[in-house]
Amino acid sequence: MDEQLRVGLVGAGPWARMVHAPGLADHPGTRLTAVWARKPEAAAELAGTYGAEVAADPDELLAAVDAVAFAVPPEVQSGIATTAAERGKHLILEKPVAATLADAERLAGAVRRAGVASLVMLTKRFAPEIREQLDQLREVGGWAGGSVRVLNGALLDGPFSQSPWRHERAPLDDVGPHVFDLIDAALGPITQVIAAHRGEGGLWQLILGHEGGATSGVSLSMALPLNPGVWEVAVFGEHGHRVLADRGTSAQDCFTNLLDDFVAMVQSGTTEHPCDVHRGLYLQRIIDQARRAAGG
Questions:
Q1: Using CA atoms, how far apart are residues 8 and 196, in angstroms rounded to an integer?
Q2: Helix or strand (DSSP H, E) at 204
Q3: Using an 8 Å Cβ cutoff, are 283 and 105 in contact?
Q4: pLDDT score of 2
């Protein structure tokens, strides 16, 4: 690029420190320009590490950048992101894109009207091996069903165990968007949440219906003392049984790949992408349907 995108970062927690800030600072097409967080001392520490400015509030950050990346809870993200889109700023969003379906609809509408680029950090969709395998599954076709198991103890210990929004709404809102996105990409569009149950300890069990007649079963928990945890997405049908193979592409590398796509979108004026805000809205609708099916 002849000129780097000036990107502001909203958030200074573990994910921002581990992935967003170093990724934005190191990518040749972006420059980490400003940081704002609800904890000013955390924003100052992170900004200082990468030579960025500390914004006193979101308005000050928006005035200084071309794009905004988010690493904050969904209820914080959606409002600021909607305002950013209305001011013509491109968006790198976390999942879920909002805390409620109504907020997600407002955000997607603002992005559409403004004509800005947007991407959602659906991490594994930016891993080359996952992209390749999903392409192969779609090419082969004939899949009758699938299964997803994401079971871990992330809420019991580790960098995200003190996150209030995750304790309130995970795993459905946290890992749910990732797995709904993957099984949808593998089997075809999810047309119905046939059944959903939330058991003790936050274990979610769901049955999903897909366009074309396939069904899939999903088991999710972030409060089981499993070490290592389980992350498995599989499909089966007339061509046998296949499991998506994770070959170890790190979250940091996936974010770099996202930034490659993001910079290319901004340069070319493209606003459509398989993982744009409208994909985020689609996944939010599935989350909403699952909660309703489980009784709220």
A1: 38
A2: strand 204-210
A3: no
A4: 57
pTM of the predicted model as reported, rounded to 2 decimal places: 0.96
Residue 93 near residue 119 (C-beta atoms within 8 A):
yes
Q: Where are the alpha helices (DSSP H) in the chain?
A: 14-15, 21-26, 40-50, 58-63, 74-86, 101-114, 128-140, 164-169, 176-187, 251-268, 277-293
Q: What's residue 1's pLDDT?
A: 46
* Cα–Cα distance for residue pair 204/108, rounded to 1 Å: 27
Burial class (CB in 10 A: 0-12, 13-18, 19+), 19: buried
Domain 5-123+251-274 grouped into CATH 3.40.50.300: no
For residue 200, which amino acid is it?
Answer: E
Cα–Cα dist 34/48, whole Å? 10
pLDDT, position 130: 97
Query: Cβ(140)–Cβ(239) under 8 Å?
Result: yes
The residues, ordered by sequence, that sit 6+ positions from 48 with a Cβ below 8 Å of its Cβ are: none
* Homologous superfamily, domain 128-246: Dihydrodipicolinate Reductase; domain 2 (3.30.360.10)
For residues 296 and 289, what is the distance between their CA atoms, to the nearest angstrom?
9
pLDDT tens profile 105-117:
999 999 999 999 9
DSSP string over 97-157: S-SSHHHHHHHHHHHHHHT--EEE--GGGGSHHHHHHHHHHHHH--EEEEEEEEE--TTTS
- How far apart (Å, rounded) are the C-alpha atoms in residues 203 and 108? 30
- Which distant-in-sequence residues (6+ apart) come within 8 Å of 215 by Cβ? 145, 194, 207, 208, 209
Q: Which residues of the chain have pLDDT under 70?
A: 1-2
Hey, how many other C-beta atoms are within 10 angstroms of the C-beta on 292?
11
Domain boundaries, the chain: 5-123+251-274, 128-246
Q: Per residue in 23-39, pLDDT tens?
A: 999 999 999 999 999 99
